[in-house]
What does this fold into?
Amino acid sequence: MRRLNVINRKHALKKVKELDAFPKVEGSYQEKTATGGGISIVVLILIVILVWSEFGYYTATELVYKYEVDSDHSSKLNINMDVTVAMRCSDVGADVLDMTGQSANTFGSLQHDDAYFELSPDQRGYFTSLQYLNDYLRTQYHAMHMFLWRSGFSGQTGTMPPREDKPTRPMDACRIHGTLTVNKVAGNLHVTVGKPIKLSSGRHAHFAGLVEQSDYNFSHRIMHFSYGSPTSGVVNPLDGEEKVTTANHHMFQYFIQVVPTEVDTALKQMSTYQYSVTESNRTIDHSSGSHGVPGIFFKYDVSFLKVKVREEHKPYWQFLVRLCGIIGGIFATSGILHTIIQFLIDVACCKYQWGKYSTPREVIGETVPVQSLATDYSPLPESAPTVNLLPPDQEAPT
Ligand SMILES: *[C@@H]1O[C@H](CO)[C@@H](O)[C@H](O)[C@H]1NC(C)=O
Ligand SMILES: *[C@@H]1O[C@H](CO)[C@@H](O)[C@H](O)[C@H]1NC(C)=O
It folds into this structure.
């Protein structure tokens, strides 16, 4: 039984040996040439370059966008704003109304700080750079926001520097800033004349009785306006907006579409909101049929679609497949190339000899005419003697 096993194993081993696709070639059959060496070096460099670039390609990531219906309707939406209006704080009020009809003061409150509308030189410089940066981000948006999301850039560009001068005139503007937490439904954040008062009917109004018509000035500057978490790599299109009007009764409207966005990259996981905006403005003049309330209106709506951004790798098994393809392919191609080049060199140098590669005839142990051994080429008579060449170990007959 044991012997049978041994025989079987030997048999199997033999079968496996027959399958060997890499038969060994004797060292003496391998000839090394200078062209072969040169091509080998080129091939090696080529392989390194190609493998390196392929490696770069496969380690690079790409942002994949997916859209799905936003099923999260219970969470709240933050509105962050920092807007300066060219009216005294005692004359203006900001608050938000949404579709739920909830009382405005349940959303939190914004800070109203007295300020100067005109910026000091330092502040103007800062604001101009903010405008410039935001403009650049908006125009380069598609290229840039990939970078922003990948790099974990916070999008926060610092704060306005304090005034370096102290004007003697009274403050003429109001900086309204802070965060409101609202329901995730459409709403209207507005800045109008007078403080908001709640009416018993559940509606609300702004009490504007004591404000002079000539004090109305809704020129404004937006330092920051965003939704969601305040630190994010999202480009806020309203940052750096500045509107100056010479009409007292002017209405500015911003129509904002808020898009929930989830970003999941190697450096950053965040759930935030992006928005797009269209704007319109007009002077209110009841006599010419342009009715409305002077003020600044941010009318927003929340998209029911959510954008999901993921950073994804290309699969590594593909990299392995391509690696094998590159290395094997280059070796095979360079082998053919080598043969062709060798042939061309031989032809060019007139060195090509047919039969160069045929092995010299074995002369030992064979009877050859003496003629072929003689040094002079004079023809020998027919009866020329022959010698019998023997292998060196055999004694020659005497
Ligand atoms: C109002 O909008 C028009 C374009 O629609 C624009 O040219 C103009 O500058 C705006 N007015 C103000 C005061 O921003
Ligand atoms: C509003 O204020 C700005 C800046 O101080 C000024 O340029 C503009 O003329 C004012 N508009 C009105 C209607 O007073």
Observations:
- Residues 99 and 108 are 17 Å apart (CA to CA).
- The chain has a mean pLDDT of 80.
- Residues 71-303 form one domain.
